[in-house]
């Protein structure tokens, strides 16, 4: 009995397809990828309201640049420094944005609520002209475990510059810590909110002071 022409080729293709399907099924069942983690996403708690400036604002536009940070901090992870210099992240919780963006947005809200600048540009949009630019390096946004308990900590090296004149006006290092008052996720998030409020209040006051000094200098 003569074989059917092309039968061997058909059988080879069938075996090949079956083999590929088997391999894919095996790989999918033994994947090295971890299972999807159930995450709770958090924003910073709402800022405490402060009285708005009632006088005439500085006639300048302030740009808030996204802070520079390292690879670990530039992420939505909620970080903890427990022993020595070893960083880890809390399982199951994340910020709503990468930390530099989260902090920049908090500063923008604080400056707008304060009202002492004519306008605020939020982000690295170089197409819009700004009289002053506030940027800097965010070296820490983490819970630090110390002898007196865990603390939500922010370390920020601020740089205030005049983009149109291509010069730095002032620099300052800010260090803010707030104790974590209760166990669990709510205590951690609350402490970060309080630390961000203090940080924003201090940097708004400092930036405004520098702006007023520059305005006085320009009038002389």
From TrEMBL:
Record-annotated ABC-type transport auxiliary lipoprotein component domain positions: 42-204
Name of a matching Pfam family: ABC_trans_aux
TM helices/strands, residue ranges: 12-35
Name of the protein this chain belongs to: Cholesterol transport system auxiliary component
Organism: Nitrosospira multiformis
Keyword Nucleotidyltransferase: no
Domain of life from the UniProt record: Bacteria
SUPFAM superfamilies, sorted: XCC0632-like (SSF159594)
Keywords for this protein: Membrane, Transmembrane, Transmembrane helix
């Amino acid at each position: 009995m003569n074989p059917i022409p092309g039968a061997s080729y058909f059988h080879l293709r069938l075996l090949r397809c079956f083999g590929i399907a088997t391999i894919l099924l095996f790989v999918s069942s033994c994947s090295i990828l971890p299972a999807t983690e159930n995450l709770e996403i958090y924003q910073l708690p709402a800022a405490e309201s402060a009285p708005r400036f009632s006088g005439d604002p500085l006639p300048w536009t302030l740009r808030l640049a996204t802070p520079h940070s390292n690879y670990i901090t530039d992420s939505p992870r909620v970080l903890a420094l427990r022993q020595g210099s070893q960083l880890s992240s809390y399982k199951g919780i994340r910020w709503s944005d990468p930390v530099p963006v989260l902090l920049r947005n908090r500063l923008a809200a604080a400056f707008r609520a304060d009202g002492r600048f004519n306008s605020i540009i939020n982000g690295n949009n170089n197409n819009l002209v700004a009289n002053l630019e506030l940027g800097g390096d965010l070296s820490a946004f983490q819970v630090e475990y110390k002898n007196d308990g865990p603390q939500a900590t922010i370390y920020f090296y601020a740089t205030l510059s005049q983009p149109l004149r291509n010069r730095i006006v002032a620099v300052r290092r800010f260090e803010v810590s707030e104790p974590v008052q209760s166990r669990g996720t709510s205590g951690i998030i609350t402490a970060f909110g309080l630390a961000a409020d203090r940080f924003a209040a201090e940097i708004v006051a400092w930036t405004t002071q520098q702006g007023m000094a520059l305005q006085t200098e320009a009038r002389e």
